[in-house]
Amino acid sequence: MKNVLFTALAAIVLLTSACNNLDENLNNSMATELEARQKGLADYLARNKAIGEFNMASTKVPASLYNDPGTGFTTVRENLNMITSKYQATVDVYNDHLSKLSRLQEDYQNGKIKTEEAKQEFESINSNFKSIISTLDRADEFYQRTSDQYAEILTKWKTANPDEAAALEEAASKPGGGLFNSASNAAQKPATNAKKQ
């Protein structure tokens, strides 16, 4: 009975495709692309969260470091704010194009648009995706450099202020302690492998 039902459903799909004059290669390409971009979104969302958490944690450093213009920390904070906003905005654009791709495939399968129009729109979306991913990659590289700068600044501050650093690290190690080490740890997080061109 299940085999009969499956055969019937398959026949309906084939008939629908034939009636709508679907280009199966194009339809399959859309499905493959959609799956890949959905997987990519999960990686970018995770990376976006990590960057946001690092940016927030970096505000919890000691006042003697935060307020000292000679350390270069002010520039790092400005760059982190910029990266956080840029990455979030670009992930939003990525997600928007993911929705566009999903709607395009649905409309094409339902016969709402013709093959040539669907092909042109698909190529346009793909081109935009490449640009979006390139922007995310550059932002991530800038984040890596900035987090390295932060780690260097923090290490120098600890060396110059060993007593204060030791006290803060002890407090941070206790349950409910401060966030002194959290930004330093976040800076060590490896980049996610979300580069699906």
Describe the model.
- The structure is a single chain.
- With 197 residues, this protein is mainly α.
- The chain has one domain (23-186).
- It is built from seven helices and no strands.
- The chain has helices spanning 2-19, 24-57, 63-66, 73-109, 115-160, 162-173, 182-186.
- The longest helix has 46 residues, at 115-160.
- The two termini are 43 Å apart.
| Residues in β-strands, percent | under 5%
CA distance, first residue to last residue: 43 Å
Helix content: over 70%
Backbone shape:
rod-shaped
What's the quaternary structure here?
Answer: single chain
The number of distinct helices, counting runs of at least 4 residues, comes to 7
Q: How many extended strands? A: 0
Q: Note the run of SSEs as H and E.
A: HHHHHHH
Low-confidence parts: 2-15, 186-197
Q: Helices and strands: which structural class?
A: mainly alpha
Largest sheet: none
Q: What do the pLDDT scores average to?
A: 82
**Domain unit count:** 1
Radius of gyration: 25 Å
